[in-house]
Design brief:
Keywords: DNA-binding, Transcription, Transcription regulation. This is DNA-binding transcriptional LysR family regulator. The protein is of the alpha/beta class. Helices cover 43% and strands 25% of the residues. The strands form 3 sheets. Strands 3, 4, 5, 6, 7, 10 and 11 form a 7-stranded mixed sheet that branches. Strands 1-2 form a two-stranded antiparallel ribbon.
Length: 297
């Protein structure tokens, strides 16, 4: 069976689609613009389909192009995995792990793990990306990240997930707040207070949104920020309260109060289901799972 395309043509097509034009795609690919244009024209001719709408100053994908884009990304990802697997047969181990971590974990839970791994495997480069769990899921699916930290739910069914941390979500208040001397507070109590929340897409925000859905009570959002030091400063000054994983609240001028009933969050290390993991990636996963009990303390 003679195919209408090859991997090079698909790589050029994806680059044009992602960069929105032939010039920027050619610059990224380090080839002449004419080579990109001719390759795309040849691909369209062989497929007998128009893949791009060509406007005066921009291009856009046709419906057929949109369909091909998703398939092309998947096929190129598989090709890269095959090449990596063959290279590793000869001992050429991939020397980089790209992992996405939500800011709360990156600041308070992962530093000892990352430093410990780097100490044991100095030849492996770690690239850490901070983002909300939903964005991390998309980046893993699109091949921008090898691994990421997610909260498991129905949307993660296409990911291979391994739980490594179970931590309590608590209410964070200043020491002089009326909640500070309590052992626990209800979701209704919390939602009645001015809140400082992360933006959509972070597990912290989804946790609060879920409480609102369960109680039928709308949260009173006073501030939105993904910056943990800023959120803490706002809470200290008495302009609102928030929720954090318990370890994040371990400061003398802040109090951590449990929910009633207590609320626990399960966090998992995830990658694409069926994806090939390099030796470096497998080694990192094993290291995290081996040392995860230490994160509970």
């Amino acid at each position: 069976m003679n195919l209408s395309f090859d991997l090079r043509a698909l790589r050029y097509f994806v680059a044009v689609a992602e960069h929105g034009g032939f010039t920027r795609a050619a610059q990224t690919l380090h080839v002449a613009q004419s080579a990109v244009s001719q390759t795309i024209a040849g691909l369209e001719s062989r497929l007998e389909l128009r893949l791009f709408h060509r406007h005066e100053r921009r291009i856009s994908l046709t419906p057929e192009g949109e369909l091909l884009l998703g398939q092309a990304r998947e096929l190129l990802g598989q090709a890269e995995s095959i090449e990596l697997a063959m290279r590793e047969v000869h001992g050429l181990v991939k020397g980089e792990v790209r992992i996405g971590i939500p800011s709360m974990l990156g600041s308070y839970y992962f530093p000892p793990l990352l430093m410990g791994f780097k100490s044991r495997h100095p030849g492996i480069r770690l690239t850490v990306v901070e983002a909300g769990t939903r964005r991390l899921q998309r980046m893993i699916a699109e091949g921008e990240l090898d691994l990421g930290v997610v909260t498991e739910d129905a949307s993660t069914h296409r990911l291979e997930c391994h739980r490594f941390l179970r931590e309590e979500m608590v209410v964070c208040v200043p020491r002089d707040h009326r909640f500070a001397q309590r052992e626990s507070v209800t979701a209704r109590d919390v939602l009645s207070e001015p809140l400082v929340l992360f933006q959509d897409g972070y597990f912290h925000r989804e946790f609060v949104d879920r409480l609102a859905t369960e109680t039928g009570q709308q949260p009173q959002v006073a501030f939105q920020s993904n910056l943990i030091p800023l959120t803490k400063a706002i809470v200290r000054q008495g302009f609102g309260i928030t929720t954090f994983l318990r370890r994040v609240v371990e400061e003398p001028d802040l109090a951590a109060v449990s929910f009633e009933p207590s609320a626990w969050l399960d966090l998992s290390l995830a990658w694409n289901q069926g994806a090939y993991l390099s030796r470096a990636e497998r080694t990192f996963v094993d290291f995290v799972l081996e040392h995860s009990p230490r994160l509970q303390h």
